Amino acid sequence: MNAPFIMPVAALTALYPTSTSHAGRPRAPYQCLDNSKIKKLVIVFRNYPSDPANADEYWRTIKHTIQDLPTSLRSLIVLATSTDASGKLKPGKLCTHHNGLRADLIYSIWAWVKHELDSGIGIFLYPILVKAGLPMLQEWKVRQLEPVQRMWRRDFDALEQTPEGRQPIISDKWSYQENQCPACMLARIGSDTQVLSALYAGMVGRYSSKKVGKKDKSRSNRVNFIRYLLKQSDSGEKLVDESWDLGKEMKRVREGWREHQRDSVRVNFYGRKSRSSISSSSQPRDSCILINTSELFDLNDNVKSFADPQDSSFVACSANTGCTESGIGVDISDLAGTGKPLRRSRLVNL
Ligand SMILES: [Zn+2]
Fold it and tell me: Which domain of life is it from (predicted)?
């Protein structure tokens, strides 16, 4: 019996150079975009009208913008209608305003944008907001992502999206998108600088430094797509710079918090891990990770609103330790009893 013929992977890669990644997995359409195509595509996702009176003019402009795109970004077949009898969008289709775009490309972009807004960035942000703490203004900036899910979730509950001890962000900007067209939702997001700034900062903070690369030369098409969306807004360059810095700051804060978490794990005689107990009152309070916030906000007024009130390991250093620097202190004084060297006030600059 003859052995089946198997074409070598190298040959397949040569035949389909843009269809698979280095790992052999099929590449999503957005991964095949170069920067010049991304710059052209993001023009479709700006200036979404908040006032319905401007809608007709807006859609006329969008139609021409789509017609001017390179053919690789456009659909070869434009259907007269992409909805069923009930007015619902057919699977994999775009609304009649956007159906000149390549649907598979738009859906591939929407998949990761939605993932970031559903939980990707939220999981990254939670310990930063609730455990480590951010200055009030920065926290407010990144929390702008909370209400966006309302666009695709009919059961959206603002309270569910709100970290402990905070007030929910109530916004009527993100009403449910009736047609659920991903291009329409991308256009609404792409026209909102607050959400774009938070999204960009969250991705820069969450992704590995290797993936994010440099501010003006990212290796990630996802990061580049959001950066170009933000860049085309008013004061776009400035917003990109500020959001990049915020993302990097959040990465540093989270790494400082994780380092503290690792240091606080003790291994007992049987090799079992346990968290060290919360500091006792007999221990000096001058051993802490200090997140220096002195230039950004007044400690006495704000520190309680950032630290988790249920977690007594978070203390206002100046109030309890006599520290002269302003900050949110994470008490690690109990490490003194573990045989580990006692570290005093490791400083995490914001
Ligand atoms: Zn649409």
Answer: Eukaryota
CA distance 293 to 325: 9
Q: What is residue 276's predicted lDDT score, i.e. its pLDDT?
A: 57
Q: Rounded to the nearest whole angstrom, what is the distance from the C-alpha of residue 161 to the centroid of ligand 1?
A: 26
How many angstroms is it from 162 CA to the middle of ligand 1? Answer: 29
CA 52 to CA 50: how far, in whole Å? 6
As residues whose CB is below 5 A from the ion ligand 1, the structure lists: 95, 98, 181, 183-184
For 283, the token pair is 């221990």
Note whether residue 332 is domain-resident.
yes
- Domain limits for position 176: 22-253
DSSP label at 26? Answer: B
Same domain, 125 and 79: yes
Give dist(CA 181, CA 341) in Å, integer. Answer: 57
Residue 281 clears pLDDT 80, i.e. is over it: no
Is 205 part of a structural domain of the chain? yes
From ligand 1's centre to the CA of 180, what distance in Å? Answer: 8
Q: Which residues contact 19 (CB under 8 A, 6 or more apart)?
A: 26, 27
Minimum mean pLDDT range among 53-57, 150-154, 300-304 = 300-304
pLDDT, residue 330, reads 41
248 and 286 part of one domain: no
Question: Are 59 and 196 found together in one domain?
Answer: yes
Q: In sequence order, which residues have a C-beta less than 8 Å from that of residue 259 and are 6 or more positions away?
A: 289
Residue 12 falls inside a structural domain: no
147-154, Cβ contacts within 8 angstroms, sequence gap of 24 or more: 147/171, 147/173, 147/174, 148/117, 148/174, 148/189, 148/195, 149/117, 149/118, 149/174, 150/174, 150/175, 150/176, 151/175, 151/176, 151/177, 151/185, 151/188, 152/114, 152/176, 152/177, 152/180, 152/185
